């Protein structure tokens, strides 16, 4: 049995799958089982990738569905198809440093933690024909020194590509919430952190790739900002209602406090900008 199940969710993106295969081949930790979930896309290009992976000596499995089930459902199908003690989500368009798996796996030998998170790099890119062209790279905002419930209740602190977690915790948390079409990772991370702590690896070992909104290859963050705003409110409301129903202080209470802090900070920022603008006008 492999030590790590790598779940890759994909749909009609063979160019990214080709890069994903190359990325896994570069990992210096090879005790993994790669589970590809073809979520309603053309099966032929994915089957070709599977054949190439097997030829390269990778332990790979394909789950192919004729209809799309959504990202979170695809994640659950992939995770539940495996039996390794550790799970990670490697979506088709993201990449790792060759040391990601070895570093996070080593960190989780400490039984005080149920998940390991590395710092990440944000890579902007565009697709030109059969080429992926990187246009810029910077240290991501997803680089916390530590991850606590107070901070995570304000906003998500890391992307899925940066997270290795224990299967036992995944099962106890109930897996990914399949009703969410965006922010499923934030919801999952919150429920996981309620169960135990995450260790942070202070190296940029994960790469989160961003493409222009409106393009066929755009990712959910850039292409659905409006949807994220609405779903952030919905998610907060969900947990606030739970706290009100049970009469206890929980995630909802923390998320409500975080929302008020964010609002106050935004108002203070607007006020400072207005004052600076006013001073500039008066000087003219």
TrEMBL record:
Q: Which InterPro entries match?
A: Glyco_trans_2-like, Glycosyltransf_2, Nucleotide-diphossugar_trans
Q: SUPFAM superfamilies of this UniProt entry?
A: Nucleotide-diphospho-sugar transferases
What CDD domains is this protein classified in? Glyco_tranf_GTA_type
Residues covered by the Glycosyltransferase 2-like domain = 6-124
Which Gene3D superfamilies does the UniProt record give?
Answer: Spore Coat Polysaccharide Biosynthesis Protein SpsA, Chain A
The protein depicted here goes by the name Glycosyltransferase family A protein
Species source reads: Hyphococcus flavus
């Amino acid at each position: 049995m492999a030590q790590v199940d790598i779940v890759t969710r994909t749909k009609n993106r063979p160019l990214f799958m080709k890069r994903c295969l190359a990325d896994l081949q570069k990992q210096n930790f090879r005790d993994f089982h790669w589970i590809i979930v073809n979520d309603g896309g053309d099966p032929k290009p994915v089957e070709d990738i599977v054949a190439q992976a097997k030829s390269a000596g990778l332990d790979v499995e394909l789950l192919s569905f004729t209809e799309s089930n959504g990202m979170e459902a695809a994640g659950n199908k992939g995770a539940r198809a495996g039996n390794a003690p550790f799970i990670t989500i490697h979506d088709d368009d993201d990449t790792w440093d060759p040391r990601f798996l070895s570093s996070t796996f080593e960190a989780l030998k400490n039984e005080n933690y149920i998940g390991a998170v590395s710092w990440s790099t944000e890579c902007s890119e565009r697709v030109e024909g059969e080429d992926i062209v990187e246009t810029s790279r910077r240290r991501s905002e997803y680089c916390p020194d530590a991850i606590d419930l107070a901070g995570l209740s304000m906003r998500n602190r890391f992307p899925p590509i940066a997270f290795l977690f224990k299967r036992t915790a995944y099962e106890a948390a109930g897996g990914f919430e399949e009703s969410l079409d965006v922010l499923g990772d934030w919801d999952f991370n919150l429920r996981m952190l309620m169960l135990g702590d995450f260790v942070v690896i202070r190296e940029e070992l994960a790469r989160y790739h961003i493409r222009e909104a409106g393009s066929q290859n755009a990712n959910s963050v850039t292409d659905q900002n409006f949807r994220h705003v609405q779903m952030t409110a919905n998610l907060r409301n969900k947990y606030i209602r739970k706290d009100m129903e049970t009469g206890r202080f929980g995630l909802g209470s923390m998320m409500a406090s975080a929302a008020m802090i964010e609002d106050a900070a935004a108002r203070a920022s607007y006020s400072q900008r207005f004052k600076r603008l006013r001073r500039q006008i008066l000087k003219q």
